[in-house]
Design brief:
Structural class: alpha/beta
CATH topology of the largest domain: Aspartate Aminotransferase, domain 2
Number of helices: 14
CATH superfamily of the largest domain: Type I PLP-dependent aspartate aminotransferase-like (Major domain)
Bound molecules: pyridoxal-5'-phosphate
Strand content: 5-15%
Shape: globular
CATH architecture of the largest domain: 3-Layer(aba) Sandwich
Largest sheet: 7 strands, mixed
Strand order of the largest sheet: 6-12-11-10-9-7-8
CATH class of the largest domain: Alpha Beta
């Protein structure tokens, strides 16, 4: 795509975008009576208009049926989570029996650790990326303490080299080679929340498996953003939240992928609950946990219907639009944002720095921009003019043009506001 930093180009690009109509299926926050420039779908996705209807239907059915709604409502609650299997599997590149929706993300990470971190005297180290999302750091730290380890001795954190912002793939692979006999687990955020860097999960997993090491990923910033092939890449497990790119609403339910070879392993250590128990005998209420031989076998509780109903509305849009189409639009949108920032930089004494990889295969739609020499007042100026973005101290702006509902015009308008705010 040949970009231009002018309004006609942006309007033309929107007019020829086959996904342009999806924008109207979402509710936008407003600024002075107009749609705000919303670039924080990486933090909380917008609300699909259909959500209200889906939640109301569940309220109606609860009122109408009471407990009988488990079997008699239009989408019976007993098997409600099964409505998502095919659509969710499609988005992350898994088989239907490898995904389940349950709990919150950090809760699920802890549950995965119970199954996939089995330290022995010789093999007990975990490799992760430096500056992982805080919840992931705390999860690893407390899991290691639970096993009686000193986290600083057992955790190997691979970071960016001095003077660099992103982590080199080769440094991760080398760290695996160097610690191959002591590593039990590799656990990495597939897309880093701060820099937007996308890791090559296929190569990392292949390298881990060469030495019998388990590979798991946090895909909070990956699911619904980048193209994933969790099954084909032979990833062992992954978890993600659905309220970021998947638009399910604040604090909504998390997604889990467990490779079928593990799900079928009845001996694999796990914490059980009645919703993970064999469906045929669940209501006999007998002792003796028999896990369902799919990702559902990790469910503890019956499904939180009101947390899942919004996700149904959103995943239907993903299913219709197609992840491939969304991703390729996302590349064009982020490419346009990158172009606009580069254009603005031509006139700046101290340019803005994009710390997200320039290489498309190493990022999703988010760009993280360092506003050197400028503080929060730049961000406040943007906010005052209707830009909803994300600020990280001391001077990083994270912007996610989301292909599902952002437009080229959004980016053009943002560019003008950014340019004026810098002057
Ligand atoms: C957003 C995010 C979380 C949030 O965890 P919750 O348990 O959903 O609150 C955790 N890890 C990563 C990498 C994230 O991006």
């Amino acid at each position: 795509m040949n970009y231009n930093f002018n309004k006609d180009f942006a309007l033309q690009a929107d007019a020829s975008d086959p996904l342009n109509s999806y924008r109207d299926k979402f509710v936008f926050p407003e600024h002075l009576g107009k749609k705000a420039l919303y670039f924080t779908g990486n933090s909380l996705g917008l609300m699909p208009k259909k959500v209200r209807e889906y939640i109301n239907e569940e309220l109606d059915d609860w009122g109408k049926f009471g407990v009988e709604g488990h079997f008699q409502s239009r989408r019976p609650w007993y098997s409600y989570h099964e409505n998502f299997n095919s659509m969710m599997a499609e988005i992350v590149g898994a088989k239907e029996n490898e995904v389940v929706l349950m709990n919150g993300l950090t809760t699920n990470l802890h549950l995965m650790m119970i199954s996939f971190y089995q330290p022995t005297e010789k093999r007990h180290k975990i490799l992760c990326e430096k500056k992982a999302f805080p919840s992931d750091q705390y999860m690893l730290e407390t899991q290691l303490k639970h096993h009686g380890y000193n986290p600083s001795e057992v955790l190997i954190e691979v970071g960016a080299r001095d003077g660099e912002e992103t982590i080199r793939e080769e440094d991760i692979l080398n760290a695996i080679e160097e610690n191959k006999d002591e590593l039990a687990l590799i656990f990495i955020g597939g897309v880093n929340y701060y820099t937007g860097q996308l890791f090559d999960m296929k190569s990392i997993t292949a390298c881990a498996h060469k030495y019998g090491i388990i590979a798991g990923f946090d895909l909070a910033h990956g699911a619904g953003n980048v193209l994933l092939k969790l099954h084909d890449w032979d990833i062992d497990f992954a978890c993600w939240c659905t309220y970021k790119y998947l638009n399910s609403g604040p604090g909504s339910v998390s997604g889990v992928y467990i490779n079928e070879k593990h799900a079928q392993d009845q001996e694999l250590n796990r914490f059980g609950g009645w919703w993970g128990h064999n469906k045929e005998t669940r209501f006999l209420m007998e002792p003796g946990f028999q896990p369902i031989p799919t990702a559902e076998g990790w469910q503890l509780s019956n499904a939180p219907i009101f947390s899942m109903a919004p996700l149904l509305a959103s995943l239907e849009l993903f299913s219709n639009a197609g992840m491939r189409n969304l991703h390729s639009k996302g590349e064009r949108l982020s490419g346009y944002l990158e172009y606009v920032v580069d254009e603005i930089n031509k006139e700046l004494a101290v340019p803005l720095e994009i710390i997200t990889p320039r290489e498309k295969s190493q990022r999703g739609c988010q760009l993280s921009i360092v506003a050197h020499g400028r503080g929060k007042e730049l961000f406040d100026k943007l906010t005052d003019r209707g830009v909803i973005a994300d600020w990280r101290e001391p001077n990083v702006i994270r912007l996610a043009p989301v292909p599902m509902y952002n437009s080229f015009e959004d980016i053009f308008d943002f560019g003008i506001i950014l340019k004026e705010s810098l002057n």
